[in-house]
Amino acid sequence: MRIRIKHNKTGSLVFLSHLDMMLTMNRALRRSGLPFACTEGFHPKPKFSFGQPLGVGMASTGEYFDLVLQRNVPISCIFHALTAVLPSQLQIQGVQEISPGESSLMALLWGAVYEMWFPMGKEFEEKKWNAMKGAEEEFHRLLIQWEWLGEEEGLAGIRLLIRAGSKENLKPKEFSTYLEREGLASGPCWMIRRELYIEKDGTLQTPFGMEVKI
Amino acid sequence: MDFASWKQLYGVQKPVRYINQEWNSIHKNEEELRVSCALAFPDTYEVGMSHLGLKILYHLLNEQEGVAAERVFAPWVDLEQQLLQEGQYLGTLESNRPLKDFDVVGFSLQYELSYTNVLNMLHLGGIPLESAQRENWPMIIAGGPNTVNPEPLRDFVDCFFIGEGETFFPRFLRLIEEARQADEDKASVLKRLAHEPGVYVPALYDLQKEGQFFTPVPKHPSIPSSVTWQCEDLDSVFFPRTLIVPYTQVIHDRVTLEIARGCTRGCRFCQAGMLYRPVRERDTETLKELAHDLLLSTGYDEISLLSLSSSDYSNLPSLIKHFSCTYAGMGISVALPSLRADTFSVAMAKEVQKLRKTGLTFAPEAGSQRLRDVINKGVREEDLLKTVEAAFSAGWSNIKLYFMIGLPTETREDVQAIVDLVHKVRQAARKHASRRPQITVSISTFIPKPHTPFQWVPLLHREEVEARQRMIQKGLRGRAFKVQWHGGTQSFLEALFARGDGRLGPILKEVWEKGARFDAWSEECKGDIWEDVLAGHEYPYNELVYAPLSTQGTLPWSHIHTGINDSFLRREWNRAQEGHLTDDCRGGTCHGCGCCENLGMEMKIVGSDNLADTD
How far, CA to CA in Å, does B217 sit from each of B140, B208, B223, B556, B558? Predict the structure, then answer.
């Protein structure tokens, strides 16, 4: 049985690297008692397939990984078994069965939605529209959509849909560096990945199969 | 997490060191607490979280009602800067409560080069460094193997606990709880504590010059003049059934199951072998149960059978058989961390590493038979070569060999013998290896340690150490060998703090003030600061480190009694110089070290089984 799992990454656990995440999920899976399938070879490991790595320091409300189980287990049991062995900052949001033949998440990946919150630079108000015009030119077809989210507790927010995956990819860090370079941000950007989009059967959808229109 | 705390951690290396709420970590409600203790490990998270003693105490203490035991590690230099800039105190991982607000801060002393970190953590935690300046709580205590010479830290620690702490520590915290509830002041509690077995309260002792050293003498006749190491019965003592699972890879990142405590092989340089006597093996059935619970509660895929010499565990074949039958199908592997160089060990390693051959490590320690006899390492060259052949024909292609230079009576011929031995090992390996053999040779410098038969022996001069290192380097050129060293400054400091007396306190404080931290990390160890500060003090550090000590005189650690009689240490030193071996007392011959009688503990060997066929 092949399943896809969606989870959060919040609080202080945003500082887990991709390697730390794999280690943590591996151990959680062993604690869960689920009949996970292992790879062949010298050192059998659970058959995981992770989505796009998330940078150290970034939060997410839309992380996905795929997993193979040796036999069928009811989805609700998988959900509860995993929730019971993970800290609250890595909350399971959903579990879906996927067809055994489906390509890997990474192969289907098309884009990602990010929110960035940052302390405003002195020229933020004057430059915020012009600088974004510049960003559209600079990042061109990698930056699909953007909108200002307003200000909260002294931080300005922006929401972006950018290309991600093996064909076209914009690193969110490149965008935050741009904000700093243009004087819009006066410090590091606090980033949250909201969702991943995949391209499948000619449509854009979330990894859970919800069609998206952009 | 707010933006400010996020930004602070975002700006440092490896922020995952400082985050909290790992699986199985324990957070207690503040309302339920009656006594709080910070378990402080004076090195990084990755080092501290690899240490079994810390894990045992953490779970043991948190099992007690009303007790909170929380962890704190040395912050790396970048976070230290941030804490100082922001005016924040160093707090524990669990609650971020500043160290100054705990009832007790307990340091684990595993390594002499962590002492500047002890001072730094006190300072960052908002606690005055010297106990003389601290009328108020918290009480600063220290435990671990280094406490067998507590003198270099006597100015900074209120109370040392000497020995194995499983029985002492919970009882001690009850006592602190009562004292805190009765609003008793710290000085009067310390006076009471000084009468507890294993407790040393340096403030109750004056320093008196005796020969070349200053030694502590009780200020009052009621204070005991010596303190005896405490030791535990392994079958009645607590062992955790769960362990904290770090989010990131730490140095020893697996279930560590302590199968035995102590080793009576009697290597004369080995402090742990002297301290953790008598040898006590844990019951095999208990171990199987513990392993089951620990693997289930942590999700680790590896279990390490820990002891000073794991191939000596009497029931090892059946224990390993059990593990490979029960867990191999789940992809869980077993590690044996300390193997003797014999074919039995290879057979055991073969059993546990049927699938994955991760590398084998052996420690001949010296190159020549003469010198191995001096240090009482009862390994013969033919044993080692046979072992290597067995290992390589069983499929291993990497082995690591540990040697020491600067051992007592060592000559350049003995050093050349290391080179020759490694070449023989390579030849033996090539006969059997399917792939090109890779031999890692780790050369450490012998450091004389208190309470060993070599405690009187000087450290070899740095120039000579370097000359001998060069000999080995020249002799072991080529792609088949990888040679590793220990730094000269670090060896000197380790010897200085292993054997130094109470006058080292001001020196330690001054080097800390000038910026010494993380001396155990070669890239951080600042030799120039140490040199400057030592030059400014009239402390006879050169004599102390580089000259032999009198076997008749009082030593800075003479007030600490490990259970081993001085006469035994002297006899062993004489036998060493004559090149006589002393065999393992587990065979039945008592050599009169004295620890069983003095500590009221018996050797415990589990009924060994005859599982002849281990293949």
Answer: 21, 7, 9, 11, 11
Region B299-320: mean pLDDT is: 91
Whole-angstrom distance, CA of residue B72 vs CA of residue B269: 32
Would you call B300 an interface residue with chain A, using a CB distance cutoff of 8 Å?
Answer: yes
Residue B269 has pLDDT above 70, yes or no: yes
More confident call, B331 vs B470: B470
A26 and chain B: CB distance < 8 Å anywhere? yes
Ramachandran region, residue B242 (left: φ > 0; alpha: ψ -120 to 50; beta: rest) = beta
Question: Which residues have a Cβ under 8 Å from the Cβ of B124 and sit 6 or more positions away?
Answer: B75, B80, B83, B84, B89, B90, B99
Token digits of residue B264:
């009576």
Please provide the average confidence, as pLDDT, over all residues in chain B: 93
Q: Which long-range contacts (CB under 8 A, 24 or more apart) does B377-380 make?
A: B377/B265, B377/B267, B378/B265, B378/B581, B378/B583, B378/B584, B379/B340, B379/B341, B379/B342
Burial class (CB in 10 A: 0-12, 13-18, 19+), B73: buried
- B242 inside 8 A of chain A by CB: no
A187 has a chain B CB within 8 A of its CB = yes
B1 in contact with A at a CB cutoff of 8 Å? Answer: yes
Task: With beta carbons under 8 A apart, name residues in chain B contacting A153.
Answer: 3
Q: Give the total residue count for chain A.
A: 214
Do B569 and B576 meet the contact criterion of CB atoms below 8 Å apart? no
Closest-CA residue to B397 (of B426, B431, B435, B366): B435
pTM given for the model? 0.94
Parallel/antiparallel/unpaired status of strands B213-218 and B205-210: antiparallel
Which of A17, A27, A83 to mutate: most B Cβ within 10 Å? A27
Choose from A13, A14, A15, A83 for mutation: most chain B CBs within 10 A. Answer: A15
Q: What is the DSSP letter of B437?
A: -
Between A13, A27, A43, which is nearest B245 by CB? A27
Distance from CA of residue B357 to its chain's centroid?
A: 27
Q: Average pLDDT for consecutive 10-residue bins of chain A (214 residues)? A: 96 96 95 90 81 94 95 97 96 95 91 96 91 92 95 94 94 94 93 96 94 90
What is this model's ipTM?
Answer: 0.92
pLDDT computed for residue B357 by the predictor: 62
How far is residue B365 CA from its own chain's centroid? 18
Coil/strand/helix, residue A183: coil
Asked if B189 and B134 count as a contact pair (C-beta separation under 8 A), the reply is no
